[in-house]
Automatic annotation (TrEMBL):
EC number: 6.3.2.1
Position of the signal peptide: none
The entry's keywords: ATP-binding, Cytoplasm, Ligase, Nucleotide-binding, Pantothenate biosynthesis
Molecular functions per Gene Ontology: pantoate-beta-alanine ligase activity
Organism: Thioclava kandeliae
Gene: panC
Protein name: Pantothenate synthetase
Catalytic activity: (R)-pantoate + beta-alanine + ATP = (R)-pantothenate + AMP + diphosphate + H(+)
Keyword rRNA processing in record: no
Amino acid sequence: MTLVIRNSTELQEKVAAWKRSGMLVGVVPTMGALHDGHLSLVKTARAQSDRVIVTIFVNPMQFNNTDDLAKYPRHEERDLTLLEAAGVDVLFAPDVTEVYPDGFATTVSVSGVTAPMEGEHRPGHFDGMATVVAKLFGMTQAGSAFFGEKDWQQLQVVKRMVRDLNLPITVVGCPTIREEDGLAMSSRNVRLSAEERALAPELHRILQEVAAKLRAGQAVESALAEARAELAAKGFGAVDYLDFRSGESLAPLEAFAENGRLLVALSLGQVRMIDNIAV
Ligand code: PAF
């Protein structure tokens, strides 16, 4: 049975009792509209913890676009059914006023890894994300936290913040879960039309094609330019970025490197898609 808690004091009392009896507590932070990608994070969390908390909070502070916030899918009842079936102990689903009470005045701002890509295209997003994640770590008091590699830059930002602030939590990155046709699972995929949904997996195929070219020694710039042209020809919308970068520092790479990662963000219809793969 999954207990739903909306109040952080109640949550902290529960977690303190678990910890007193020596239990390891894991948290999976989410914004809800759960899919198999989230459930695989829960599975890893369950394998590595004695008790698992999933948080659902659509964090207004990390949306730089009010339309995206308004349209973000919300299905708490359905999510709860999935969490029950997945054996989650607590669903923590606070209201906005519980997370940001009157007088809330703190922003966590990570520099460096936040600058390129999402940082350029979604001003303020990472401040909002880092602030709420720090807040959720404090509210849940968990010992480990599980994040998907699909949001690769987000994962690097969270790891940087935890190191820099000596937060007593271990951050675990978990592989991206894909549909059978290669499309990375995302809560936003439900907003794709049938035609867009049919085209969407081409993104992953094209990323793999670029990776193969880079491994074969093709120059980075020309491999990326060919991919951009192919994406446009297939019918994808504006590409915010398609970059080859160091997986950890996110510095741009000019030639193949072992830890290199291809990262992309583009639009397809009304939906902004992101994806990344190791090269
Ligand atoms: O990845 C997400 O769903 C969100 O950015 C997170 C980590 C739950 C913070 O709101």
